[in-house]
Known about the structure:
The mean pLDDT is 97.
Amino acid sequence: MKALKIQGGKELxxxxxxxxxxxxSVALIPAAILSDDVVTICNxxxxxxxxxxxxxxxxxxxxxxxxxxxxxxxxxxxxxxxxPTNMAQKLRASYYFMGALLGKYKxxxxxxxxxxxxxxxxxxxxxxxxxxxxxxxxxxxxVYIVDAxxxxxxxxxxxxxxxxxxxxxxxxxxxxxxxxxxxxxxxxPEIVNVATFLNNMGARITGAGTSEIRIKGVDKLNxxxxxxxxxxxxxGTYMIIAALAGNNVKIDNIIPEHLEALTxxxxxxxxxxxxxxDYVIIKKPQSYKPVNIKTLxxxxxxxxxxxxxxxxxxxxxxxxxIEETIYENRFMHVxxxxxxxxxxxxxxxxxxxxxxxxxxxxxxxxxxxxAGAAMVCAALIAESGEETIITNAEHILRGYESIVEKxxxxxxxxxxxxx
Length: 419
Ligand code: EPU
């Protein structure tokens, strides 16, 4: 098992360059199998979730070549076969093979996906979308067999603006006969990035980034070249770290419009921020005012930053509140933060953070990816010189490219150890 060993109290200074977005890349790689020719995707982060998806592509006999930040996928040799449960359950995003294989072969067999334990996370809306397109679904234990003689465009209303269901329905509908309309679609930037990729291959998708997406089915998808957008959650995590432990930290290669909910909350706290076209510089605040946050779908405050942000709230002068509206169980990091000295009361999907509290070095666990990011934030501000060991660091490495190198470069004392 891997762990991160971090010494607290170091002032951070310098530049961090943001990698390509995990939650775009994890959809683009399965989507590539829809193409009839070679696709090149650049700015793909080197994280273990990408390795797991590449393994599935290779299992399906697609040719996958990784060259630094790019992945070249040749799906001409690919075949359709059931995806083994252990491969599907390594991560959440394996579910994008459901839409992609259904769209390409009209048949897919795979089990319920894995991923962070932050709530029930059913896939009923994905399946409802596939059924509306004409697929029949059989479930044997945890394995779904999704089969269609023909996929036909349909009007699909999503009860929840789900990121995964929106993308999966786009993947299944892109080669269907006729037009599909997804109503109450999710509007996250990753959805726009995936729609652009499919359009680069010859798909006809309009409205991505709004709540109504229209997909006119096409017969063939060509090869293309595509670039992954910068990771707004990685950027947000480092902005929070900079606000906590930095003095003039530049977060480079970002799309500032994707981070507005976070920047406005940082400003409300009193963190001085200098905005550039594709960067932000976070300066040292005089003091931290308490604030209230509520997680919402884009462009609201992202649930994926709620856990790291809660560490910033432990340093605010007074009572702050958090309302988590996307997941039922995204406070698993709180008992770990309490071990370090935080004072947080959780009640259902709400939490109250009483600050400021000093945090001390401790041995804590990364219970999930963003909980792990929260523990990194906390460890960096632990009392001067005190050491924190974060176990289960594999969770963190699933989503943050070169986190040890990036933080070391700006002055953090952090290393990875085997335990
Ligand atoms: N939901 C349903 N039924 C469905 C689909 C979703 O009830 O069929 C519910 C979920 O249980 C959840 C809510 O709808 O309560 C939102 O889920 P959504 O489908 O939007 O999330 P997701 O596609 O499973 C992606 C990201 C998450 C991120 C969410 C929200 C990937 C692989 N995952 O998950 O990222 O939190 O969108 O923005 O793209 C992370 O990166 O740490 C992470 C968890």
